[in-house]
Amino acid sequence: MAICTACGVWTEPPVLVRDSAGMGMACPHCGHTEPFAQYPLCWIGGASGSGKSTLVPLLRLCLPGYVVFEGEAIDFWRFDGPPGDYGSLYNQWLKVGYEIALNGCPVVIAATALPAQLEACTMRCRFTTIAYLGLVCRPDTQTARLLHRPPWRNAAAPKFIAAACTFSRQLETAARADPTAIMLHDTTDTRPEASAQEIAAWVRVQLLQP
User: Does the domain formed by 39-207 have CATH 1.20.140.10?
Assistant: First the structure.
C-alpha cells in the first residue's frame, strides 16, 4: 500500500494529486501515479468507563454487514512513544481501518483518541471523512464503573480514574468548541441496548449505508 509499484520505493506519507480522473497517489521519487481510494470512517471515542467495551458487542448485533473494530485489540504498550504520546498507535488503528475498508466493508472503530489526534496521523488521508461520536458520562458514574472493575484491570487507582474523567471532559470541551466535529452520547442513564440502537442509527447516516 505504501510501496510504489513502478520503482519500489516507500511512499509513506503519500503525495496526493487530483485530476479529471479523480484522486491519485504520486510517487515522490519517480512520478508514477496510481488511483487512490478513500473511504468514510466512523469513530466512537471514549475514556475507560464511558461504555465502549459494553457497547461494541451490541453494535455488532445492530450493524450486520459492518465491521466494528475495538482499538484495544491492538496492545497499546507496543506503540508507546514519548510519555503520553500514542501517535503511532492512532496511526495503526487507522491503518487497520483502511485495510478493512479496502474489502468494501463499512468500518467503525471504537478507541480512545481525540479528533485532533486522528487528524495529525499520516493515515488520515486514507479517509474522506472521519465522523466522530464521543461517549461520555457523569464523573461519579464513570468513577463507580471503574471502581467496580476486577482488580486485575488496575482501574481503581486514583491517577487512572482522574485521567479517564479528564478525557471525558476534553471530549465535552471539544464538542462545545465545534459541535459539528463531535456528536456526544451520554451513557450515564441510558440502557446499553438503547444506546447501541441510537449509535447504530447515527453510523448508518454517516456511512450512507442501509
Answer: no
